[in-house]
From TrEMBL:
It comes from the Bacteria. This is Amino acid ABC transporter.
């Protein structure tokens, strides 16, 4: 019995050493998650329970024994500040070449896109409204998410011909639409709108979607990397991303959140 106990202890020591050796050689990637505002691309609850379109793609890319994902959940402005200052190294998140004003999310991007997004104008109890030209919105109020980017919309905001109300979350945006229902519209990615309307149990038959591509054309989202991520890692990510496209794995992930 004594020999058996010694043998068990020996196996346990070996197992610990193997685990330590694995941890020493496993490559770590810092995955940056935007707190609260990025659903359904990044979903989390108090920095835990990570899911969402981009998150599932990243998890699939790095699945296996050679990588460890370290999650960093940050408010949008703090995230930009930390990434621009270089306080976090070897990171990955998502971005777009259209987001030119945010360098860290528009410069070092994956070779292959994640998803194509389009924007909608959401109204509440305005079934008769038709958007045919930007002038239809003059004097109206656009509800926009604080910290988000709206390519193509800036000139109209700067001209002050369209009023803007900035909100921090979707619940606030939906409340504004109900309060100013004949004069307010919420501009957002269609995918995000549909997800968050359902998430907040909003009455879908009371809302109207209006195509907004005459102002914000469709564009693609990509993975975004830190400039210090080595070429071999970037090549690996691109290869895995292509394989996920070829097998329709990304389509399946996106469909789950539509």
């Amino acid at each position: 019995m004594f020999r058996f106990i010694l043998l068990i202890k020996c196996f346990l020591r070996v197992g610990v050493l193997v685990l330590l050796a694995f941890n020493a050689h496993a490559m770590e990637i810092n995955y940056i998650v935007i707190a609260d505002q990025a659903r359904p691309f990044q979903i989390e609850s108090n920095g835990k329970g990570h899911s969402g379109i981009v998150t599932e793609i990243v998890q699939s890319i790095f699945a296996g024994q050679d990588w460890q994902i370290k999650y960093h959940t940050l408010p949008f402005k703090r995230m930009i500040s930390m990434l621009e200052s270089g306080r976090i190294k070897h990171w990955i998140t998502y971005g777009s070449p259209e987001w030119k004003s945010v360098r860290v999310q528009s410069e070092h991007l994956s070779k292959y896109p994640l998803v194509t997004v389009n924007h909608s104008l959401l109204s509440y109890q305005q079934p008769g409204f038709k958007l045919t030209k930007i002038e239809d919105l003059y004097g109206k109020t656009l509800v926009l998410m604080l910290g988000f980017l709206y390519p193509g919309l800036d000139p109209y905001i700067e001209s002050k011909k369209i009023n803007v109300m900035w909100v921090k979350g979707y619940e606030s945006a939906f409340r504004v639409l109900k309060r100013l229902k004949h004069d307010a519209f919420f501009v957002e990615m269609s995918l995000r709108l549909k997800y968050n309307l359902k998430k907040n149990n909003e009455p879908l038959d009371q809302y109207q979607f209006h195509d907004f591509d005459l102002v914000v054309p469709d564009y693609q989202l990509y993975l975004a990397f830190s400039s210090d991520l080595d070429p071999a890692s970037v090549s690996f990510i691109n290869q895995r991303l292509k394989a996920m496209h070829d097998t329709k794995a990304i389509d399946a992930i996106v469909a789950h959140y539509e």
